[in-house]
Amino acid sequence: MNTVTPPDSHPARRVHRLLRRARRQYAAGHDRPLGGYLTAMAGFAVYTAAWASAVRRSGRPLPERPEPWDVVLTSVATFRLSRLLSKASVTSPLRAPFTRYVGPQGPGELHEEAQPGQGRHTVGELATCPFCMSVWVASTLTAGQLLWPRATRTALAALTALAGADTLQLAYGALVKRTTSD
User: Fold this and answer.
1) Are residues 166 and 82 in contact, defined by beta-carbon separation less than 8 angstroms?
2) Is residue 114 a contact partner of residue 128, using CB atoms and an 8 Å limit?
3) Whole-angstrom Cα distance, residue 138 to residue 66?
């Protein structure tokens, strides 16, 4: 008895065909690395699950609610560390395997573009996007607060102080420019 299944009726092939069509329709003629994004999302899920597991195994109780001051410190520290990792000149060697230098972007910051290629492009986009990076940074800092609260608050305070110093540097530069120009 020969039970040959027509090629298009195999469920895996149908799903694959549907996904290819959805990707093509979504991209609207542009090269959008949806597979890479899906991999990054899966990586983030594994990353946060690992942190959650570590927090659970530590036996430390979760706070009823986050303290407002911790939220402020985490927000500012996340902003600063995300920009430091994704834009700073000094951290460009970390991004170089996945990006291409385009030019300066601001004080101590660079404009870089993701290199082509499925994996490189996705990592390059993540590595150069402070908004994308902030999701990973905020998760890491939050887990740090739960596992090592004193050390993490010290790091949060240092990053917040750095963000404050950056703001003062930019404000001072703007003030000098304003007062010395005609």
Assistant:
1) no
2) yes
3) 13
Give pLDDT, residue 2.
59
**How would you label 28-61 residue by residue, b for 16+ Cβ within 10 Å and e otherwise?**
eeeeebeebeeebeeeeeeebeebeeebeeeeee
CA 41 vs CA 68, 73, 74: distances in Å = 29, 26, 22
- How many Å apart are CA 174 and CA 181, to the nearest integer? 11
pLDDT over 70, % of the chain: 93
- Tell the residue number behind the tokens 């949806």, with chain if given: 34
Q: Give the pLDDT mean for 8-17.
A: 79
The mean pLDDT of 93-116, rounded to a whole number, is 94
Q: Which two tokens stand for residue 82?
A: 């995300």
Residue 92 burial (CB < 10 Å; 0-12/13-18/19+)?
middle
Which helix (H) or strand (E) segment holds residue 159: the answer is: helix 149-180
Q: How confident is residue 26, by pLDDT bands cut at 50, 70 and 90?
A: confident
* Alpha carbon separation from 126 to 17, 42, 64, 83, 148 (Å, rounded): 28, 14, 32, 12, 27
pTM: 0.82
The pLDDT of 149-177, averaged and rounded, is 96
Provide the CA 39 distance to its chain's centre, in angstroms. Answer: 14
